[in-house]
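Q: C-alpha cells for this one, please.
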Amino acid sequence: MEKILFEDSSHFNLLPLTFTRPLYELRAGIFTCKERWSHIFGEEMYAYAYDYLGSAFNKFPTHNEPCLWINGKFVPDNELLKEIEDLGPSTYLSNNKEEVIAAQFPLSLLPAEFSGILAKDLLDGLGLKELSTSNDSLAIRQAPDMFLNNEKLIAYDFELITRTRTSQKISDPYTRIYGADNIFVEEGVSVKAAILNAEDGPMYLGKGANLQEGCIIRRSHAICDHAQISVGAKLRGDTTVGPYCKAGGEIGNSVIMGYSSKAHEGYLGNSVMGFWCNIGADSNSSNLKNNYANVRIWNYQSERFADTGLQFCGLIMGDHSKTAINTMFNTGTVVGVFANIFGSGFPRNFIPSFSWGGAHGFSTYQTRKAFEVAEKVMARRNLSFSEVDKQILTKVFELSAPYRRWEMEKV
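A: Here is the predicted structure, written as C-alpha cells:
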C-alpha cells in the first residue's frame, strides 16, 4: 500500500520554520521527518503539503487504490507503528490530544479543490471511522520540541541508520576518542586532531563531513553529510549540524537544519536555524533570562508572546535569514524568513519575515533584492533558486506583511 505523509495544525505552531516547507521536511536528529519515515518503511514516501507549498512538495500516487496517510510529525515506537500498519479501510487513528495520527483512504476521496490541513472534522465528514490510541509517541508540535527532543531523535535515527551497517574508522593519530562504539563514521569523513566524546550518547558523522583541527564534540550529535565543524569549535550535547552546514564557536542543544552557517565564534544554545541562514562572526544568542523566569516566544496563531514553560530557549530563525557580525539576540527571539539583521544593541525578540535592520529600527526587505541574494548564495552550492522557490517566498512576503506593519509601529 502506498504511503502519503501529511501535516496537521502543528504547521502553524511551527512557523516561521514552516513558512517555506511542510513540517515533515523539518530536520531534527539525523533525518528530516520524511527521511525518517522512509527509513522506517524502507521505501520512498509520497507527500501532501498545505496550500501554497503543494506546488513544491506534493507527490501523489497515480492509482486510486486506498493509501495509508501518516502524520509526518510523529516518531513512532513499535506499538504505535503496529497500530498504524493495522489500520483497516476507511478508518483513521487519533490520540487523546484529538490529533489524527494516520488514516486509510484513497486520494480521490479528498475534495478536488482541497488544500488545507487533514483533521478529525474533515475525516469525519468523509465518512471514515475513528479508532483511538492511548499511545503518547514522540512528536514535533512546536519549534522548541526540535531541540528539546533532539537527544531522543538522534538516538532513534542512529539506530535506524546504523543497525545493519559497519562504521568506517577514524585513523588520525592525533584525534582523541571516547566511547568509540557509540560513533558511526560514513565514507569520506575527515577528522584532524579533534576530541570526540560519545560516552553519553551516539555520534553520527555523515558522508564527507569535515571535522577540523581542535574541535571538541561531546554527547549526542548528528554531523550530517558534508557538514563542516570549524577549527576549535566547541559542540556541547544533543546538536544537529545539517547537510552542508558550517558550525563553529560554542553550540549546545541546537538544530541547524541544512545549508546554513554559524561558522565563527559566538554562542548558540537551545535554538533552531532553518535552511540557508548565516550567523555573522562573534554573534551570540541568550538562552536563559537573568531572572531565570520562563521564556516567552512569539506565537503566530495567537499573534502574541506565549509562555514556553521553558527556562532555556534561544533563537528560532526561519530560512534565508542572516545577521551581521556581533549581532546580539535576546532570550527567545523569533526571526522570520529573509530577515537581514545588523547594527549594535539587541533587536526586538520578534523580527517578522522580510525585515531589514536591527535595534535602531526596521524597514521592508524587498523581494527583488532578497531573491538576488538567494540566487548568489544557492549558486555557491551549485543549486538554483527556482521559480517555484520564488512563488513560495513571494507568498510568504504577502502573508507576513501584517507583522511587518505591526513591527514598524512598535520600533
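A few notes: The chain has three domains: 3-139, 142-275, 281-297+308-411. The first helix runs from residue 10 to 13.
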